[in-house]
Amino acid sequence: MLHEYIWGTEDWIYEDEHLLIKKIDARDKLSVQVHPDDVYAKAHGLENGKTECWYITECEDGAFLYCGMEKGLSEDELRRCLEDGSIESHLTKVCVHPGDFIFIPAGTVHAIGAGIKLIEVQQNSKTTYRLYDYKRLGPDGKERELHIDSALECIDSEADCGRFPLPFSCEYFGISRTGDHLTVTCKDTLLEIPLK
What we know:
By secondary structure, the chain is mainly β. The chain has a single domain (2-170), classed as Jelly Rolls, CATH 2.60.120.10. The protein has helices at residues 38-43, 75-84, 148-154, and strands at residues 2-5, 8-15, 19-26, 32-34, 52-59, 64-69, 91-95, 101-104, 110-111, 116-123, 129-132, 162-163, 168-169, 174-178, 181-186, 189-194. The strands form 4 sheets. A 7-stranded antiparallel β-sheet has the order 1-2-3-10-5-8-12, with no helix packed on it. Strands 13-14-15-16 form a 4-stranded antiparallel β-sheet, with no helix packed on it. A 3-stranded antiparallel β-sheet has the order 7-6-9, with no helix packed on it.
């Protein structure tokens, strides 16, 4: 199922009770955002949190994403950065290349940059809290909604995020590469996802 957004497209290629897998084509940068963990989600009436990962399939030269943020920022300092638009200077910039694997545990502040195509494997949750969206306008001509208070409650600045080698596994899924496919495992499910 292909979804069009102001920043590009995402194609939902697999969904079950536990997993959602997408192919994302980011022609522009996505919002700076964070997802809740299971504990926070369930305490707020949601089924589960969202831990996810990205496998970079294609990218432009110099492409980058954000994964994690500066430690030690107070809530007041973070709110000021969001207000004055300087938040990107406090995020961890990761330059990417095809074949890179990035792990984004729940609580990680993150954003996909422009010029990147990737496969995203995630817990099946539709909950995203936007921290910053570059003052972009939605289809209604208004700035897209932010969820700053909820996002601040979810941030885990100590989360072990970033680039990892394959094969990789966490409590929600396992990822490996076999030839021109990603192999994704989750409970009793085994999937072969074409990289092209």
